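Proteins fold reproducibly. Look at a concrete instance:
___
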Amino acid sequence: MRYLTDRKRAAGKGASGTGTEHHWHMQLSSVALAFLVPVWLYIFGSALGSTQDEVVAIFGQPFPAILTALLLVVGMRHFASGATMMIEDYARGGTRKVAVIFVTCLSWVIAATGLFALARMAL
């Protein structure tokens, strides 16, 4: 027979029973975005106001293309996770389910559209 105290059963678990996993994913993505966004803004700022051919040439290079792809994927995952958490806090019932599905689909559509546009420029 295995004996666990109440404290041992509750250690590492939040109210939902998932522990701190969601919190750590949000922290990790926010730190990644803190490094990605300033570098991407510098690249984007240098391309701002250029002709279409110059912009395609800039984002056709490997570093700006990979950085933009990372920013899209990490940023949209961070958005979906944060928006889902907010919806779960404030919405109830069927509205919650529909809103979570909408936000998740919206983030994936934005990421897919951005990656498609980036692939068209880079290739």
Q: What stands out?
A: Helices lie at 6-10, 21-47, 52-59, 62-90, 93-122. Residues 21-122 form a domain with the 3 helical TM bundles of succinate and fumarate reductases fold (CATH 1.20.1300). The chain has a mean pLDDT of 90. The radius of gyration is 20 Å.
